Amino acid sequence: MNTLTPKQGSIVTISASMSKGDMIGLKQALIDGLNQGLTINEIKEILVQLYAYVGFPRSLNGLSVFKDLLEERQREGITDTVGSTSAPLPTNISALELGTKIQTKVVGKPVTGGIMDFSPVIDQFLKAHLFGDIFGRDILSYEDREIATLAALSTLAGADSQIKSHIQIAQNVGVSFTKLDAIANILKSKIGEMEFERFNRAVKGQ
After folding, report:
1. Of 21, 48, 20, 16, which Cα lies nearest the Cα of 32?
2. CB 99, CB 131: distance < 8 Å
3. Labelling 185: which of 67, 91, 122, 203 has CA 20 to 30 A away?
């Protein structure tokens, strides 16, 4: 599909609202996401993954809003789909080895040099934890994970270089320019002009 699905559109608003700290906006985005067919476990996965990009406080706040919303909907007699749980990570390969393979696949080449040589520990954390422990889980596709990441990064001042890097990764895993435009339009209409401008600059390579 060459455009965002309704579920992917909801991933944008959930991710950006959580990262921005807009809890009112997040609650509405969560409602819209559930109504568009995102499962409880898919939404939990989005909110958990993003701690690696925007920090535990934002992630924990987002999960708290989601927990309260689900309890509210249960009281109203609304039953939401829980969805699949993640398959166990492989036991015949370490998280570092798995993450290195995944990172190389989504980036399109081995990631070495620069910051990774300057701080080998961040290289290990990125490979073993972010790409191994988190991206290795199969609840979300790589495409959906990159859509969530781009939306979240759009709310962060000074993250332009990371947004540009993830735009390339997103394209590698199937996010077309049409989908990038759709992300930009959602950011502009539902999140804010500043987030739209930050993301759009990165897309246009400015």
Report:
1. 16
2. yes
3. 67
What tokens does 36 get? 């568009």
Q: How many CB atoms lie within 10 A of CB 110?
A: 10
Q: Which amino acid is at 179?
A: K
Please check whether residue 177 is in contact with residue 124, taking contact to mean a CB–CB distance below 8 angstroms: no
Distance separating alpha carbons of residues 142 and 49, to the nearest angstrom: 12
Distance of CA 199 to the CA centre of its chain: 14
**Which ranges of the chain does DSSP label H, i.e. alpha helix?**
6-20, 23-35, 40-49, 51-54, 56-75, 95-107, 115-118, 120-125, 142-153, 160-172, 177-186, 193-203
Question: What are the angstrom distances between the C-alpha of 19 and each of 52, 92, 194?
Answer: 11, 35, 14
Indicate the SS3 state at residue 76: coil
CA nearest to 3, candidates 178, 199, 194: 178
pLDDT tens-digit readout, 86-136: 999 999 999 999 999 999 999 999 999 999 999 999 999 999 999 999 999
- Residue pLDDT, tens place only, 2-17: 799 999 999 999 999 9
